């Protein structure tokens, strides 16, 4: 306990799924946590629920695809708390129609998800949130860390899909591969400033994003055929990985990608 005592943490996509589990874990380890998401009403309610047990968690609305919105988020945090110590970029979408915290439908016709049938607008939405959103979170956070001479940590949530191609998810796979490379290049640039940037590539985890899969026996059979451990992961398992990378326990890790995925990818 206390791995993040007196640290100020910002978590985008922090009101559900992996972000929410990490927010609770960070707060339990002593951090002042600010969760950020695009839905103001849902975000405020989520922060209130998480804080009910005494956790120090606040909510700030953000559109991760907007530089102005991200700058306002971090400026607000720095004004109130003096600095940002650690950031978890967990905001992301599995498809253009995904809404944070809600269960999306499995497309009845898999043909519709094939690469040649996808709409350009769908591709652009996924890239805007999953790539540009993560880039802006890193960019703005690092600017404040440099200004305050903070030896900070950033953890980016990628996906096993960034290393293992999944049919019907070309946009998602490419976006998460980009997050891995973004992590590596940014980490290389700021190592001398003692700002560490690492990534996590989860496998299939039990969150609202995978609820539609868990409701389909056919999809679950496919997922289990890809997962040697024969189970989905739990959100708190990813939160533990994020905590490790955010804390001093990982002090010699930089530009690395960890793969908590039940054995799906071991390369």
What is the spatial order of strands in the main beta sheet? Answer: 3-2-1-4-5-6-9
Largest sheet: 7 strands, parallel
Q: Which residues form runs of ≥5 with pLDDT under 50?
A: none
Number of DSSP strand runs: 9
Give me the Rg, rounded: 18 Å
Mean pLDDT score: 93
CATH class: Alpha Beta
Description:
- With 267 residues, the chain is an alpha/beta fold.
- It has a single domain, classed as NAD(P)-binding Rossmann-like Domain (Rossmann fold, 3-Layer(aba) Sandwich).
- Helix content is 43%, strand content 13%.
- It has 8 helices and 9 strands.
- It has helices at residues 17-28, 40-51, 67-81, 120-148, 170-190, 211-214, 217-226, 235-246, and strands at residues 8-12, 32-37, 57-61, 86-89, 153-157, 196-200, 205-206, 233-234, 257-258.
- The strands form 2 sheets. A 7-stranded parallel β-sheet has the order 3-2-1-4-5-6-9, sandwiched between helices. The chain has a two-stranded parallel sheet with strand order 7-8.
- Helix 4 (120-148) links the parallel strand 4 (86-89) and strand 5.
- Helix 1 (17-28) crosses helix 8 (235-246) and helix 4 runs parallel beside helix 5.
- The protein is globular, with a radius of gyration of 18 Å.
- The relative contact order is 0.15.
């Amino acid at each position: 306990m206390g791995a993040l005592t007196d640290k100020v943490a910002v978590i985008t996509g922090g009101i559900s799924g992996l972000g929410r589990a990490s927010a609770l874990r960070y707060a339990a380890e002593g951090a002042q946590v600010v969760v950020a998401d695009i839905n103001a009403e849902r975000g405020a309610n989520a922060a209130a629920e998480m804080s009910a047990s005494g956790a120090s968690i606040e909510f700030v609305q953000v559109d991760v695809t907007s530089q102005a919105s991200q700058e306002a988020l971090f400026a607000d945090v720095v004004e109130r708390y003096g600095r940002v110590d650690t950031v978890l970029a967990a905001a992301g979408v599995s498809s253009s129609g995904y809404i944070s915290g809600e269960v999306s439908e499995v497309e009845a016709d898999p043909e519709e998800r094939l690469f040649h049938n996808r709409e350009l607008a769908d591709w652009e939405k996924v890239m805007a949130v999953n790539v540009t959103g993560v880039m802006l979170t890193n960019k703005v956070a690092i600017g404040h860390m440099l200004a305050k001479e903070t030896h900070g940590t950033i953890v980016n949530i990628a996906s096993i899909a960034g290393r293992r191609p999944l049919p019907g998810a070309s946009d998602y796979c490419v976006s998460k591969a980009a997050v891995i490379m973004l992590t590596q290049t940014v980490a290389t640039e700021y190592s001398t400033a003692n700002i560490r940037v690492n990534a996590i590539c989860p496998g299939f985890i039990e969150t609202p994003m995978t609820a539609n899969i868990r409701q389909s026996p056919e999809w679950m059979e496919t997922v289990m055929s890809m997962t040697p451990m024969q189970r989905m992961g739990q959100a708190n398992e990813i939160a533990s990985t994020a905590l490790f990378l955010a804390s001093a326990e990982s002090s010699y890790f930089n530009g690395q990608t960890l793969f908590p995925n039940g054995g799906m990818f071991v390369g």
